[in-house]
DNA sequence: CTGAAAGCGCTTACAG
DNA sequence: CTGAAAGCGCTTACAG
């Protein structure tokens, strides 16, 4: 079957519908698109004919007269090996698709090694009008993709961080939505008796890392009188370990570490003996992202669970609003939940 | 910027190129598509004009006259929560994209809960001619998607398993390519002194699970004189644990377990105390799929590493061949590597 | 409310 | 080798 040509009887067109219903192509188009200009009786006849013929619009034809593609694009710029470890994108895509599919909008996906390549892919999509808009993720400081969409006027939304460039809905209280989760983590650690904390964030060129680093400094300053340190790592276990070593080598080493993702936290827990620490007795560990890695670690890793699927839904909703020329509906900041597990819960025995 | 309309000066068309180059639209089309019918000089002038104007073909227009979409579709049928734990799809997509992108073919992606929904999505894609072909993964016994592509004559290829329905290239020796990896695992376990083995496969409705189960029975029969048992589980940690408990409760329990994926194997290792076994002393564990879960487990889990990205490449190559009406180039069975780690290596101390 | 007509941006026989 | 023309399947002013 894989070697077969797409034969079969040719697909029906509005011309066929017009013939069957005994009207003009124009009337068919109006009826099919719920436009005024057809009497109810005629409309019913046309719809029945379309149904009977099993008609479906040709995406290409519609696209050509519409000047819209009926598709949006997502160009993921990330090392494939890291991608395999991150459930993030699949969840984001699943959330987006639940909205897009319902509107008959397709999702174009590509995986590229870096932002420069992402820019080229999106430029091509736009030039060929394969997409009506794009979703941008992992925004960087001075991101060339922002220049691209601005220069070309490509409608866009953001996945991760506020989907709307104007920020989250006022319900978020105007405060940085990263503060809530981090406050909960810090309060948990204080309750466990920790007074010296540290954070291992992602690469500083990511906007979300910057936002979280800033929120971390604020939250810890308010809670402990002085901002607690932040180190950067690239989300890999290797760099997470290296950062941990540097922190532990300090004169007054932290007793609790908050990592930006699950891989770094779980790697540190796995390498606790090599690091010469007991967890949680000597060192408490918290992950900024939850996954099966956290659940299976020994001890299991406390984690912030973010509702990535909901973030995907919000991104798609905003993008569809923009494409339809509507004012984007305000989006609430994504939900999160702090899951306290053994890696930060002193079971004083 | 997200609220902006796609304004700007209108994109150039072949009409503009024709005007600049002083030729007809037809000549422009021939030159642009590398067709005969234009003199070298004219061709150069046309190409220069296209370049200068920054022309890119309109996907819709081309699609409409071509009767081809310039896109292929992948409808993943999998529970979103399991998806987040499986690096498989991202790797497959990355491999496919590396081939497709080079040919200017887009990838349409959707995530749906079950095969029935996948059929409906693909039916829609095909009816609207949004795709020229599809990639099918996780084929089942009596898979409704196979009926769909057969009935409608949709060109397709398979991701995971042979991309070509005729099977792998003869280089694979005509033998089931699942035998190689499993033989290596079984030999490793025998060398470690194990004589009672068992396998925990995926759901029996998956074709790949059936193939592997059959290969497992053959390989173990040849090595041990009698086929070793196989249980089914749904790839989740919960069912992996349940299957393990059942196996350990047998009169002559196995001393080595081979799981079909990383999640089940890593979960069993994480729950070794609850199961009342030492690993690898009482029970050796091997995973049929490698991931960071295996590396971070304690003890680390021995695993079969399959080159999923290469499988993605092969799928895309075959599909492009089929679409071009070429006989699909024979594809080698994907590479694999057995990584022996502590979970199955008796460090007799 | 309805129909004939032009147009979206390409491709491709068909004459010169 | 080159050009005028029809056609792909829709949408949308514009007359009736």
Overall shape of chain A: elongated
Through-space gap between termini of chain A: 65 Å
Q: What's the count of strands of chain A?
A: 10
Kindly report the oligomeric state of this protein: homodimer
CATH fold topology of the largest domain in chain A: Rossmann fold
Overall residue-averaged pLDDT value of chain A: 91
Strand order of the biggest β-sheet of chain A: 6-5-7-8-9-10
Compute the CA-based radius of gyration of chain A: 26 Å
Look at the structure and name the CATH superfamily of the largest domain in chain A.
Response regulator
Instruction: Supply the number of helical segments of chain A.
Output: 15
The secondary structure category of chain A is alpha/beta
What is the share of helical residues of chain A? 40-55%
Percent in strands of chain A: 5-15%
Number of domains of chain A: 3
Largest sheet properties of chain A = 6 strands, mixed
| Greatest interface and its participating residue counts | A-B, 74 and 74 residues
Poorly predicted segments of chain A? 1-8
CATH architecture of the largest domain in chain A: 3-Layer(aba) Sandwich
What is the C-level CATH assignment of the largest domain in chain A? Answer: Alpha Beta
The arrangement of helices and strands of chain A along the chain is HHHHEHHEHEHEHEHEHEHHEHEHE
């Amino acid at each position: 079957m894989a070697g077969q040509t797409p034969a079969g009887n040719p697909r029906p067109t509005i011309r066929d519908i017009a013939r069957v219903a005994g009207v003009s192509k124009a009337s068919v188009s109006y009826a099919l698109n719920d436009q005024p200009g057809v009497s109810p009786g005629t409309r019913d006849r046309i719809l029945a004919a379309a149904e009977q013929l099993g008609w479906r619009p040709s995406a290409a034809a519609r696209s050509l007269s519409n000047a819209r593609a009926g598709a949006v694009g997502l160009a993921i710029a990330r090392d494939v090996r890291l991608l395999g470890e991150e459930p993030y994108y699949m969840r984001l895509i699943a959330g987006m698709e639940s909205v897009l599919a319902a509107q008959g909008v397709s999702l174009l996906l590509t995986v590229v090694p870096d932002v420069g390549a992402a820019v080229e892919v999106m430029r091509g999509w736009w030039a060929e009008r394969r997409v009506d808009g794009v979703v941008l993720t992992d925004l960087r400081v001075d991101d060339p993709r922002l220049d691209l969409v601005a220069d070309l006027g490509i409608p866009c939304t953001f996945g991760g961080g506020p989907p709307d460039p104007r920020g989250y809905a006022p319900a978020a209280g105007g405060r940085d939505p990263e503060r809530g989760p981090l406050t909960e983590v810090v309060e948990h650690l204080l309750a466990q008796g920790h007074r010296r904390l540290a954070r291992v964030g992602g690469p500083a060129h990511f906007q979300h890392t910057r936002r979280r680093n800033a929120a971390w400094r604020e939250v810890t300053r308010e809670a402990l009188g002085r901002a607690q340190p932040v180190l950067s790592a690239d989300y890999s276990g290797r760099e997470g370990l290296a950062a941990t070593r540097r922190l532990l080598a300090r004169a007054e080493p932290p007793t609790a570490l908050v990592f930006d993702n699950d891989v770094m936290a779980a790697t540190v827990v796995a390498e606790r003996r090599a690091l010469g620490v007991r967890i949680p007795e000597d060192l408490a560990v918290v992950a900024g992202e939850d996954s099966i890695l956290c659940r299976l670690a020994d001890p299991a890793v406390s984690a912030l669970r973010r509702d990535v699927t909901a973030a995907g839904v919000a991104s798609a909703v905003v993008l569809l609003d923009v494409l339809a020329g509507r004012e984007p509906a305000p989006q609430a900041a994504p939900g999160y939940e702090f899951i306290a597990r053994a890696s930060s819960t002193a079971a004083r025995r």
